[in-house]
Amino acid sequence: MNLKNLRVNGKRLQSTLEQMAKIGGTPGGGVQRLTLSDEDKQARDLFVKWLKEIDCEVTIDEMGNIFGRRAGRDNALSPVMSGSHIDSQPKGGRFDGILGVMGALEVMRTLHENKVLTERPMVIVDWTNEEGSRFAPAMVGSGVWAGALKLDWAYDRKDITGKRLEDELARIGYKGTAPCRKFPVHGYYEFHIEQGPMLERQKKLIGAPKGILCLHWYDITLTGEANQVGPTPMEGRHDALVATAEMILKVRELPGRMGGNMVATVGEIQNYPNSRNIIPDRAHFTVDIRSWDDELALRSWDLLRTDFEDIAARHGCPVKIEETWRVNHSPFDEKLVQRVLDTADELGYSNMLWVSGAGHDASYTNHVCPTAMVFVPSIGGRSHVEIENTRWEDCEAGCNVLLHCLLKAAMEK
């Protein structure tokens, strides 16, 4: 057959995504499938089953990353790889991450049913703990695979209840035996929803980001002094939550103060003992700073850290600051990015080039091999929420772009 005419089965892709959305489905129409939870295990089991149905060789490494390998004409050649993640945010959406895994699966199914033999082998991957919502930081599975994070350090990450990542991997049966380390890859494409409003605003169907912003994560813990709220005068209190509130406002003001293209966010907070009639004696919160300019992000953090230390001293609340995670901005391979744009043109899909503000496993694969991403619009620019949505026809279009990008790469000798 003429491979240029090959297209994915959009209805099958929709059905696959809908089946996955039932695993950890929430009353609000979203998904809660946290890393290494029972729901994550159920989704992984189904994914592995589907891989075996199309004769893929399945490998699970020490970090629980799942690789499905489809043979090529010359299996000595480095493979072309595509994938994303199955885990979700708490009360997240039905498309984030899973679209990239199920999209790559649909590509494999299309090649399988049409008996297409590529020159190179092809690999589909589900990376462990991309979200970082249960075990911080994010993108841990791909980070260990790429050599950017240490395996033992990753194993010792704990969730809010104190459970270790390694123990939870073993509990759900996905602590594999294959070494978690990079191997030669000819090229990596990740298919994803945009998670922002730009494609919809510009009325474009396909996005090809030129790269990913830097991501800096910090954990801040303050220690105050608990006491009964009624008899304790306002003067002289050491209220950890009040100090935290002042710090959060400094985070909100940071991008405006620095005058650069960046964002800064507090997305998580814990207050102790969290009783209405006890002055808080401990508070923990997180800071997320992102920019295309690595030096701007670092200068911003230096300023913010000074602010935090001054506020802590003024309130008499000692502060502990942990620099949890730093990833530099990541420009993608220009040739692969252009291939996404050219392929979209060939298929008759409108397209645009810009920068991704979200973190993706592609940031770490970019350390190992040429990497690019294929984006489709997010309705209303909403993501990491239950109402996250993308039109089914847009999912199909993006998957067709992924199909032909992977095909072109896999046919290269």
Per-chain topology:
Layout: H1 10-21, H2 38-53, E1 57-60, E2 66-70, E3 80-84, H3 98-113, E4 122-126, H4 140-146, H5 151-155, H6 165-171, E5 187-193, H7 198-202, E6 206-212, E7 214-223, H8 240-258, E8 262-265, E9 269-272, E10 282-291, H9 294-315, E11 319-327, E12 330-331, H10 334-346, E13 351-356, H11 362-365, E14 371-376, H12 392-410
Written overview of the protein:
- It is a single chain.
- The chain has 413 residues and is of the alpha/beta class.
- Helix content is 35%, strand content 20%.
- Strands 1-2-4-3-5-14 form a six-stranded mixed beta sheet.
- The longest helix is centred in the last third of the chain and has 22 residues, at 294-315.
- The two termini are 20 Å apart.
- The mean pLDDT is 96.
Main traits of this protein?
6-stranded mixed sheet; 35% helix; 413 residues; elongated; 12 helices; alpha/beta; 5-stranded antiparallel sheet; single chain
What order do the strands of the largest sheet run in, or round the barrel if closed?
Answer: 1-2-4-3-5-14
* Helix proportion range: 25-40%
- Secondary-structure element order, N to C: HHEEEHEHHHEHEEHEEEHEEHEHEH
Which value, in Å, is the CA radius of gyration? 23 Å
- Quote the average pLDDT: 96
Task: Name the beta content range.
Answer: 15-25%
Helix segment tally: 12
Which stretches are low in confidence, meaning pLDDT under 50 for 5 or more residues running? none
- Tell me the structural class: alpha/beta
Please outline the major beta sheet. 6 strands, mixed
| End-to-end C-alpha gap | 20 Å
Shape: elongated
How many β-strand runs? 14
